[in-house]
Write a structure and sequence with these properties.
The complex is a heterodimer. Chain A is mainly beta. Chain A has helices at 2-24, 122-128; strands at 27-38, 45-49, 52-61, 64-73, 76-86, 94-101, 134-143, 150-159, 172-183, 187-199, 205-219, 223-236, 242-254, 258-268, 274-287, 290-299, 304-314. The longest helix of chain A has 23 residues, at 2-24. Chain B is α/β, with parallel strands linked by helices. Chain B has helices spanning 2-22, 31-41, 64-71, 87-94, 142-159, 164-189, 205-211, 229-241, 256-266, 286-298, and strands spanning 24-28, 45-49, 75-78, 106-108, 196-199, 217-218, 246-251, 269-273. In chain B, α3 packs across α4 and α5 (142-159) runs antiparallel to α6 (164-189). The longest helix of chain B has 26 residues, at 164-189. Chain B is globular, with a radius of gyration of 22 Å. The chains are: A mainly beta, B alpha/beta.
Chain lengths: 322, 300
């Protein structure tokens, strides 16, 4: 009899624990990748897994939520994002506090696995590293009154994380002005202007200005056309030269499953040379959670390559906005 | 004279803007609830819907202008049951405390509706696009939508007590009309049990349940999964084995090539039907939408 009571008490505890877990556990999403890319040293095509991205998110309390994104790669583990988001601050402000993808142009705010092409946009990678502009600090955003369909302004103050352009030992200020114009039910134009102001690891004052321009046109019920352009101008008081980075992409999305695209990257290198490439990419989504990408890239230096990528997700993941 | 005209113009503008400002701004995720809110709210509301009737509610692409639309809303009506899951980030970005989930400004229309196909075991994606709270496509059941309609009417009345009598009067008149139509639809479909009906997605469970119909087959092997050639051959064999004449009901946002291929192999016709208000020209409101579906099936 005592055993039965003990068993019932134990079952009750397990059920209570399970219920508590389902209430308080965060949403957990994991993204895996398999790449077949040209090896830079041997020129051979070698399969290798890409980084595994783990995402945890949940409300902290009724006032805010937290997001943690951890990237695990062969080279090590990196905290890509770790921030508290407060969506209902006074005067309609929205705040993010912690390590964030800085509000700079459009692609920087997304994760590379969300792109319909392989890897990171080359100009972001060259100027800021593979994950783009990621910094520690805080930012505040507000919706602006506008005659357009939407306009917002985000100001940030960061440090803590060095990249190819900015030293994390000095503060970095960011400004992003984003505008959207809806044209009828089926198309929209997004225009953004960004500014990053900080100091390089050589102690030089660096200003990076960005412009992003995107047009999206829905064609019929199933198809859409995307034209995406991003520009970056970097000025340093050390050599007073201007370095330019650019990304252009034109894609056609068929039936929300297949996307064909052609794109190009351009970025000025530290040694004074300029990298240029042209690529053709096809993305096929078997479902929302399993997709394949095939890309042919022709670089200006004659280094041409084909790349294949498989991306798969488990758990919930944020709504894609590309 | 000019002065008088200007004063008149100014007074006119102020009056107009005053009246416009008094209207309750309601935003809905689905066009069906836009139709309901307009019926209940009459001239006291302005209603907009995120989704057009011909769009798939599972895959709504959020635009920045949608944030603006929601930031000025007094009320939000959602389908709930995880169908319009994309509304959560929009609510957050809108910075509008009036329509936050859990407040009286956010009406979850699924409340009170007995959901079908609620998973009894752990849900995972090997089952396809299974919704963890049950099948969310109750909008194709007029009986379920009558419950949703009543819930919306009561919630709007509770939030705006000054207009409660007006809202209730409008709601009662519509319920009477809807009840009469439900009886008519049941009569029209009473002899359709033997009609073979092939559909794409399991969004028809509520409709079939209410009108005692069965699906001869589904074009999707699992919810949200595109069919493989092997699966389509199996489906064709299964439908042919039933030896019925029938129809493939194609939702406006689904691929018509696959439907035509299957139809050519099983001898069915393909009919594009609205599954949300505004899905086709005929479906200008909820009653005409269900009318279109019922008459399409009853004709077979």
């Amino acid at each position: 009899m005592i055993r039965i009571i003990a068993l019932l008490v134990f079952i009750n505890m397990v059920v209570a624990f399970a219920e508590q877990q389902s209430v308080f556990n965060p949403d957990i999403g994991v993204v895996g990748e398999l790449n077949v890319l040209k090896n830079e040293n041997t020129g051979a095509y070698v399969p290798a897994i890409g980084e595994v991205e783990m995402n945890f998110s949940a409300p902290v309390d009724p006032l805010g939520s937290a997001v943690f994104t951890i990237a695990v790669a062969q080279e090590g583990t990196e905290i890509e994002e770790a921030y508290l988001k407060l969506p209902e601050m006074p005067n309609g402000l929205i705040g993010r506090f912690g390590r964030v993808k800085v509000n700079f142009n459009h692609l920087n705010m997304l994760h590379a696995h969300e792109f319909p092409f392989l890897g990171q946009a080359k100009y972001l990678e060259d100027f800021f590293g593979e994950a783009g502009v990621i910094k520690d600090g805080f930012e505040f955003g507000s919706i602006l009154p506008t005659f357009l369909s939407y306009s917002d302004l985000t100001l940030g103050y960061f440090g803590g994380n060095s990249d190819n352009t900015f030293s994390g030992d000095y503060p970095l200020a960011s400004v992003k002005w984003n505008n959207f114009l809806e044209i009828g039910d089926n198309s929209g134009v997004e225009l953004g202007a960004s500014l990053l102001d900080g100091t390089s690891s050589q102690n030089a004052h660096v200003t990076v200005k960005g412009i992003n321009f995107r047009v999206k046109q829905q064609i019929g019920i199933h198809d859409s056309l995307i034209w995406d352009n991003e520009l970056l101008y970097s000025n340093s008081d050390q050599d007073s030269s201007t370095k330019i980075g650019a990304f252009h992409y034109l894609g056609y999305n068929m039936n929300k499953q297949i996307q064909f695209g052609i794109g190009m990257n351009r970025s000025d290198q530290p040694d004074g040379s300029t990298y240029k490439d042209l690529f053709v990419a096809v993305q096929y989504k078997v479902t929302e959670f399993q997709m394949y990408k095939l890309q042919y890239t022709q670089e200006d230096n004659g280094n041409n390559s084909i790349g294949l990528n498989l991306t798969y997700f488990i758990g919930p993941h944020p709504v894609h906005e590309f | 004279m000019l002065k008088k005209l200007l004063v008149l113009l100014l007074v006119g503008m102020l009056c107009t803007s005053g009246f416009a400002a008094e209207k309750i701004k309601v935003v809905t995720t689905l066009s069906d609830f836009k139709n309901f809110a307009e019926i209940i709210g009459g001239d006291k509301v302005t209603v907009t819907s995120f989704l057009k009737g011909y769009q798939d509610a599972h895959h709504f692409e959020i635009k920045p202008s949608d944030i603006m639309r929601l930031s000025g809303a007094d009320m939000l009506i959602i389908n709930g049951a995880d169908l319009d899951y994309w509304i959560s980030p929009l609510i957050e970005k809108s910075r509008n405390p009036n329509i936050r989930k859990g407040t009286s400004g956010c009406i979850d229309a699924s409340q009170g509706i007995p959901l079908l196909e609620v998973p009894a075991t752990k849900v995972d994606r090997s089952m396809g696009d299974v919704h963890p709270y049950g099948n969310p496509h109750y909008n194709l059941s007029p009986a379920a939508m009558r419950i949703a309609f009543r819930h919306i009417a009561d919630a709007m009345s509770a939030r705006y007590p000054d207009y409660a009598d007006y809202f209730q009067q409008n709601a009662l008149a519509y319920e009477k009309k809807l009840d009469a139509k439900i009886s008519e639809w049941k009569g029209l479909l009473k002899n359709s049990q033997e009609t073979g009906i092939v559909v794409y997605h399991n969004s028809w469970s509520y409709f079939f349940n209410e009108f005692h119909l069965t699906a001869a087959g589904y074009i999707e092997p699992k919810p949200g999964l595109s069919p493989s050639p092997t699966y389509l051959n199996e489906l064709i064999q299964k439908v042919n084995a039933q030896k019925k004449s029938g129809v493939i009901l194609k939702e406006t946002y689904e691929n018509s090539d696959i439907a035509k291929y299957v139809a050519s192999k099983v001898g069915y016709s393909v009919e594009e039907v609205p599954t949300y208000v505004g899905g086709t020209k005929e479906a200008s409101d909820y009653i005409s939408m269900v009318d279109t579906i019922v008459k399409t099936i009853a004709r077979k």
